[in-house]
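Example protein was shown:

_____
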Amino acid sequence: MKELTHFIGGKHVAGTSGRFTEGWQPMTGEQISRVPLASKAEVRAAVENAKAAQPAWAATNPQRRARVLMKFLQLLERDNDKLAEALAREHGKTIADAKGDIQRGVEVVEFACGVPHLMKGEFTDGAGPNIDVYSLRQPLGVVAGITPFNFPAMIPMWKFAPAIACGNAFVLKPSERDPSVPLMLAELFLEAGLPPGILNVVNGDKESVDALLDDPDIQAIGFVGSTAIAEYVYARGCATGKRVQCFGGAKNHLVVMPDADMDQTVDALIGAGYGSAGERCMAVSVAVPVGEKTADELMRRLIPRVESLKIGPSTDSSADYGPLVTAQALERVRGYVDLGVKEGATLAVDGRGFKMQGYEKGFYLGGCLFDHVTPDMRIYKEEIFGPVLSVVRAQTYEDALRLCNDHEYGNGVAIFTRDGDAARDFAARVQVGMIGVNVPIPVPIAYYTFGGWKRSAFGDLNQHGPDSIRFYTRTKTVTARWPSGVKDGASFVIPTME
């Protein structure tokens, strides 16, 4: 059994708190590691290393910082298979899905390589008599990220790549459920030429999170996870004067209009609803067919597709999805299915009895499909985070739009239709941060920003894209006047450019 470490000051450091948690292999149900849980002192050591290293890194010109990121990209490509295998082993994703996780992180690193351009300020020549005005973008200092289990490669790279490109030092607290890939990423960045101390990784639980939130040297912090914890991190981080961005839960709807291409729609729902065992914040968990005829046709096509889903170990290249991340996650999702039946929804496909031959101790759940779900049910209101799709029937387009707008979450939403006017109206009026038109998982490309609305996000700036540069820098504005030899005398009024 492997005992994992922290990564501080460019070195693997054994945990000293005496506290550990167990690391599991989801496909077999076997314990494969012990993960140290950092104390406040260990977190502080990471922050001190970051603080010591950051000034020299900030003084390195942006082009040279970008070269380190470019080398990091080369190493990510070199070790792609190794990273994907480690990710699948700890998380349970299929290898193909793990590679997708890595690739979406790579794309943000590619974006961050443009930092020499992205950090350019503004300049106005002759803003007033002999006066020039210009602005500078400068790094914040030491920043931190708290990232979830479901994307152990992508979301850490979404956080640390733009932060480091801008000249900050970074302290990462990944999920204790699957921390091996974040540690591997830190090793690769060091190999790429990143100075020791610029990227530190501390494994931990609430004690580590609170230590980061309370540390006076942490200038900004980003979080992705459940809404309850996102709200906690946002409130506590803001209370200590930090810049904070937090992304929480989701209940993503896919509206099916009567004119939708039904083959395309069903394919989209199967992939977006059940891929990665539904453990995605952008997973489609609610299908909203408009009209009874549309709903009946959708169910007729969905049921056999859900029944025929192939669940398998992470190493099975033909599997549609693998196990859930932990035994606790499995029991939680099963509990929601039990609850849906109790609440009166129709369980059209029941995957609770699924057992994976040869992997009976693994954390597997077959695909589950509910029909006749209503907005008052908890299985509709709450994020299930598993391979469970709920069908909520809407009588009209306005009813479907209202469902999306009335839900407390506003992360992602999609509409499937051939009607451009309906799609345009939907995109304009729906109160959700990311919208797909005939696209089921509308995760923006790296040079746009990712972020939800309502209780799916806390903070003013989103992840990656231009917002990430704004989040990890602050603007300094300089007004400069050079003596012309003319004596104007003292002025006692507010300066103007007249």
Q: What stands out?
A: Residues 290 and 394 are 5 Å apart (CA to CA). The two ends are 73 Å apart (CA to CA). The chain has two domains: 2-248+456-478, 252-437.
